Amino acid sequence: MMGHSFCARIVMVFANAVSPTTATFQMAFMLLLQTLWQCLSVCFSLKNWIEIALISSLSRLIHWPTCHDIEVGPQYNYKANETGHGKVETISRDAQGQFISGGLTGIVELLDDGTVLKSPFPDAEMENHILDIAKEASIYHCVGPHERLVQILGHSRDGLILEYMKNSDLKTYIQA
User: Which of left, alpha, beta for 80 (phi over 0: left; psi -120 to 50: alpha)?
Assistant: First the structure.
């Protein structure tokens, strides 16, 4: 990125100019340089924000183990590992559809209409899971429709409605 010393050198070059045309050009160039400097600052700030807010969160999600303790059925239990207090936590909820997967923030189920519901885990962290799913929805809306991305069909506090991808999730598809 350009430093302030680079800008100072450009000002020194134009300061030695004597004609009125050069002075006008100098003012216009300095305004353009200032605008460019501000744009670059915004771009680098945005890049840093993306690295902090998005990439670190995504890497946390990618490396987080999936939950294999979920039983399929009209009602299933998620048995958490022992908590810090030496207790085992059992969480029950009614299934909305056919279980597909479980992850860090929610449970993914295939609904009767052929769509997929990603709903938040009903545990002590449920409010955080709801916020995480809302962030995911906002990312889908910001990115917009794309032929290589799953499409979001709806979002509410209850979860995300997504299109069903017949070849399963990306990890399973790549490993096949």
Answer: beta
Q: Which helix (H) or strand (E) holds 154?
A: strand 152-156
User: Is the CB of residue 162 less than 8 Å from the CB of residue 154?
Assistant: no
> How far is residue 140's CA from residue 145's CA, in Å, rounded to a whole number?
8
Exposure pattern of 15-25 as b/e (b: 16+ CB <10 Å)?
A: eeeeeeeeeee
Q: Which amino acid is at 156?
A: S
Q: Please name which of 125, 42, 117 lies closest in space to residue 78, comparing C-alpha atoms.
A: 125
Give residue limits of the domains in the chain. 4-63, 75-175
Q: What share of the chain is helix, strand, coil (3-state, %, to 5)?
A: 45, 20, 35
Give the tens place of pLDDT for each residue, 30-75: 888 888 777 777 766 666 666 555 555 555 444 444 444 444 444 4
Its CATH architecture, for the domain 75-175, is: 2-Layer Sandwich (3.30)
